[in-house]
Amino acid sequence: QRTQGDVRTLARGIAAQPEGPADLTEAAIDELAKAAPLHDIGKVAIPDGILLKPGKLSPDEWQVMKTHAEHGADLLQRAVDRLGDDAGLMLTYGRQIARHHHEKWDGSGYPDGLAGEAIPLAARLMAVADVYDALISVRPYKTAMTHDEALAFIRQGSGSHFDPRVVEALNACLDEVRAIAARWAD
Questions:
Q1: 106-117 burial, b for 16+ CB within 10 Å, e for fewer?
Q2: Is 45:67 a contact under the CB 8 Å cutoff?
Q3: How far apart are alpha carbons 184 and 71 in whole angstroms?
Q4: Rounded to whole angstroms, what are the CA distances from 174 to 110, 148, 163, 169?
Q5: Given this model, what pLDDT does residue 46 score?
Q6: Beta-carbon neighbour count of residue 130 at 10 Å?
Q7: Phi and psi at residue 139, in whole multiples of 5°?
Q8: How far is 12 from 169, CA to CA, in rounded Å?
Q9: Per-residue pLDDT of the chain (186 residues; tens, 9 = 90+)
Q10: Number of DSSP helices (H) and strands (E) in the chain, helices first
């Protein structure tokens, strides 16, 4: 719920920017938000021993974990292939998000090492929403950051990890992002 709300909010923020994409209509934003929960669907292919490990992953385990992006995209591509013209925008966005939400603006991400606007916008939005949510959440291997600490981390990554325009959109809608986190708190 949190990442879905954050992606919707960030997409509206991007759409409202002076040079926002013309095709980012409210209907497209709805489909994009529906796709957000699919970002980690590929984790179904990751062994529980890695997925649920309470400590730091070994280098080999990390390589296996990183494959979730490709597994997720493959799963969603099969759905798109089966549905054909009926697949819809949500599955298209879902596939983009699943495969590319760990790409980084500077090209140092995975699985494809895409950089800048070569990364689909859906994935760039998801990257910020996903990292923000992970940072403010307790995980088996870490404590939660405060909202302000998470924002500082994201702002520090603007232009390297994250699309600066998406970070700008985040900065413009902080009250809404805080409200989403509070409404859907763990």
A1: eeebbbbebeee
A2: yes
A3: 28
A4: 28, 10, 17, 9
A5: 97
A6: 21
A7: -130, 160
A8: 8
A9: 999 999 999 999 999 998 888 889 999 999 999 999 999 999 999 999 999 888 889 999 999 999 999 999 999 999 999 998 888 899 999 999 999 999 999 999 999 999 999 999 999 999 999 999 999 998 777 788 999 999 999 999 999 999 999 999 999 999 999 999 889 887
A10: 10, 0
Query: What is the phi-psi region of residue 116: left when phi exceeds 0, alpha when psi lies from -120 to 50, beta otherwise?
Result: left
Q: Which amino acid is at 146?
A: T
- Residue 19's pLDDT is 87
Distance CA 174, CA 183 (A): 14
> Among residues 78, 10, 3, which one has the least CA distance to residue 35?
3
Phi then psi for residue 162, to 5 deg, are: -115, 150
Structure tokens at 156: 């520090």
Instruction: Determine how many CB atoms are found less than 10 A away from the CB of residue 84.
Output: 7
| Type of residue at 172 | A
